[in-house]
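User: I'm writing a short methods note and want a consistent example. For Peptidase M24 domain-containing protein, I'll paste the sequence; you return only the structure tokens, no commentary, since I'll be parsing the reply automatically.
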Amino acid sequence: RALEAGSLYLVDSGGQYLDGTTDVTRTVSIGTPTAEYRDRFTRVLKGHIALARARFPTGTTGAQLDGLARQFLWQAGLDYDHGTGHGVGAYLNVHEGPQRISKHPSQAALEPGMIISNEPGYYKTGAYGIRIENLVTIVAATGIKGAERPTLAFETLTLAPIDRALVDEALMNDEEVDWLDAYHASVSERLAPELAPWPDVAEWLAGAAAPLNRVPA
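Assistant:
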């Protein structure tokens, strides 16, 4: 169907390269988003951030983490019917196991070096869809004082702005805002030098990756 003002555009993209495979999804607003769009998008974003910030002991499976990404949708009686994350190959399959993050049990524990997607979403039948997808890699967690067990974390790999127009800052806490601002700062720092030949694109990136305007407490 045609894109029109007041709608959302969900694009799931990626590519194959000699040194890896990419998979990324962004949802952008065409014109001014409705309050419902912003609410649903922000709930998806909060779940995305919760998973991105997770720390978990070695031996943890994706099924044990899946609810982190869904919790804010569940609070509103909402959900999505696909997995939260799938393994990604290196110049092989975009969907490649054994690792996954899903409601469905998996015997495969998440291990350092694995690459997996973080892609919660929300879909209103016949109306619109929302998904935010980054690829992450599993790494050893650092900076945990008093940790008694080996602990893992996610390192986000994908560098692409998240549509700030769809974020309802009133639903975000300070830690979530800090995460999004830090993510966008990283996107700008890494990509801006590559955009020197295209000043119009560099100007767009500067705006798209700007910090959020915090809502006073």
